[in-house]
Design brief:
Shape: globular
Number of strands: 18
Helix content: 40-55%
Mean pLDDT: 86
Low-confidence stretches: 213-237, 324-332
Largest sheet: 6 strands, mixed
Structural class: alpha+beta
Strand order of the largest sheet: 15-14-11-18-16-17
Distance between the termini: 66 Å
């Protein structure tokens, strides 16, 4: 049966099924990340973003398609994480704006809305890159518009069939537009995520269903039940023993330790409480309240690859809950705004403490694998309560979310586009509380270019990139975002990286020690640095960051 008009209820079903299909395949999208690093999180970010939109739609189901579109746009906007999630939110923001006054839409109006979404997304990206999710969206929308011109009477289900087919074809073409994709032998991860969403849309219009993941759903229900066991208003924030709600999945690997659920659960129980473990033959999903989530993640890596990680600061959440509660008998005092508030994003307890020590007022726990949402950043802007708020994202995949958060609040917000922790530290050290906002923005942005960033992490798969043949398990040295060295030994890789980056003009080397870097290895590395680079001042801090055993800041 052909569908000639689309109402709000059917559109809501499309959104829910599109979000569900993306969720079921988020780990596959993550695996398409170009760099073979353990923090490829495009699928995770798109999934969390789309899920936020779907939840808002579920709460506002209506026959009026414009109202459903508004709910989707709001949910996506506030839930957007990472560049891919922000772009996805902009695609549906433009789509929803085009249909907001309509109770139902025709195939022609559906096509026009897809094109409006593409226009909005391209405007939101300062330097659009072809061969990405933007290209897949653009080609799909053009196919919709061209199809309407050729067949004005086409039904919506037939139109969506053409859109989905073109999205798949466009995805296959992405390696021809982005050389790095061809070099590594993958299609664009963000584009693949959008294809999964469109596939879910089409299934609803055809009266079909796509498969659902039982493990994720059952874990979600259990986590919800576990959280409801505690009555937040009956405890003090300082009494929370294990401060981080930590969720992740481990995909088992043959060359890692054999998984034994009972032993795994027993070992993890020593790191916290509220532990939930659900496993099948290929994967285990974990929920735990831990004080040191990095240690939990490091232990779990003994069994395979980490995916779909999420870490939330429960002390911060609990304080917010108490502030929002209806218990107070007298109105809370309104705090006077301070002149400046600085918000930083980072992961690793030691790095967070380092940022606080040099002037950060609020640290959002996040970074690789757990990008904060637009809503997380908006809340931090409100919490810091300042006339001017300065945000340091410290990650290239968080800059867009920070900029989107800045655009939806009334406060004066400045985003310093720091892409690494060392850049964020350099910018924060350049901040002058006595200077004007304009002066601080200028000097902090200039400071980004005064520091070089080096990172050591491990490869999660075999690949060839930037002329290097990389094998799974290799330790890679990344200099300013480019993989430049590799070695089977972590310490050797770190030495190679420093040899390639250090020059006679460099004066200060700051080393942030991750959870995977042992103290004795750290000492050996420092001895090497002091003997090889005699005139360089070396500072070592325990960053406690997961995934990246060493982060180097060179000035």
């Amino acid at each position: 049966m052909s569908i000639t008009t689309l109402d709000g209820k059917r559109f809501a079903e499309m959104i829910l099924q599109g979000a569900g299909h993306l969720s079921n395949n988020a780990d596959y999208v993550d695996a398409l990340n170009v760099f073979p690093v353990p923090d490829g999180d495009t699928g995770t970010n798109m999934n969390l973003s789309m899920t936020s939109g779907a939840k808002e739609v579920q709460n506002h189901v209506s026959e009026h398609i414009g109202k459903v579109g508004q709910a989707l746009s709001k949910g996506l906007l506030m839930g957007a994480r990472g560049n891919s999630g922000v772009i996805l939110s902009q695609l549906f923001r433009g789509f929803s704006k085009a249909i907001e006054s309509k109770s139902t839409i025709s195939a022609a109006e559906f096509a026009a809305a897809l094109q409006a979404g593409v226009n909005t997304a391209y405007k939101a990206v300062m330097k659009p890159v072809e061969g990405t999710i933007l290209t897949v969206a653009k080609d799909s929308a053009k196919k919709a518009v061209d199809t309407i011109e050729a067949k004005p009477e086409i039904s919506i289900d037939q139109l969506m069939e053409a859109v989905f087919a073109e999205s798949k074809a466009s995805l296959k073409r992405t390696p021809d537009l982005l050389p790095v994709l061809k070099e590594v032998g993958v299609v664009d991860s963000g584009g693949q995520g959008l294809v999964f969403v469109y596939e879910g849309f089409l299934a609803v219009l055809k009266g079909e269903k796509v498969s659902s993941a039982k493990v994720a759903a059952s874990m979600t229900d259990l986590v919800s039940a576990e959280h409801h066991k505690s009555v937040a208003s009956h405890i003090n924030t300082e009494d929370i023993e294990f401060g981080y709600c930590t969720e992740f999945m481990v995909r088992f690997e043959d060359d890692k330790e054999p998984f034994k659920e009972d032993a795994f659960r027993q070992d993890l129980s020593e790191h916290g409480d509220s532990l939930l473990v659900i496993a099948d033959d290929e994967i285990v999903k974990v929920h735990i309240h831990a004080e040191y989530p990095g240690k939990v993640l490091t232990y779990a890596q003994n069994y395979g690859s980490l995916i779909n990680m999420k870490i939330e600061n429960m002390r911060q959440q609990h304080t917010s809950l108490l502030d929002m509660g209806d218990a107070p008998s007298k109105p809370a005092e309104k705090k006077e705004k301070q002149p400046y508030g600085i918000v930083t994003v980072t992961m690793g307890k030691g790095i967070a403490e380092l940022f606080r020590s040099i002037g950060s007022h609020t640290v959002i726990e996040g970074g690789q694998t757990m990008n904060p949402s637009t809503e997380d950043i908006v809340q931090a802007i409100k919490d810091v309560n300042a006339e001017t708020v300065i945000i340091l994202p410290n990650n290239s995949n968080i800059v867009m979310a920070a900029q989107q958060a800045a655009s939806v609040v009334d406060d004066n917000v400045i985003v310093i586009p720091s892409k690494t922790v060392p850049q964020g530290m350099a910018a924060l050290l350049a901040f002058n509380p006595s200077a004007s906002a304009e002066e601080n923005e200028e000097v902090m942005k200039e400071a980004l270019g005064t520091v070089k960033t080096g990172q050591i992490t491990y490869a999660v798969r075999d690949t060839n990139i930037d002329g290097l043949d990389i094998e799974k398990g290799d330790f890679m040295g990344i200099a300013n975002g480019k993989i430049v060295t590799k070695d089977r030994n972590q310490l050797a890789s770190a030495k190679k990286l420093l040899d390639s980056m250090m020059t006679e003009d460099d004066e200060i080397l700051t080393v942030l020690q991750g959870v995977d870097a042992a103290d004795d290895e750290m000492q050996e590395l420092v001895s090497y640095i002091e003997s090889k680079f005699e005139d360089v001042e070396v500072e070592v801090h325990k960053g406690e960051q997961p995934l990246y055993s060493y982060i180097f800041s060179i000035e």
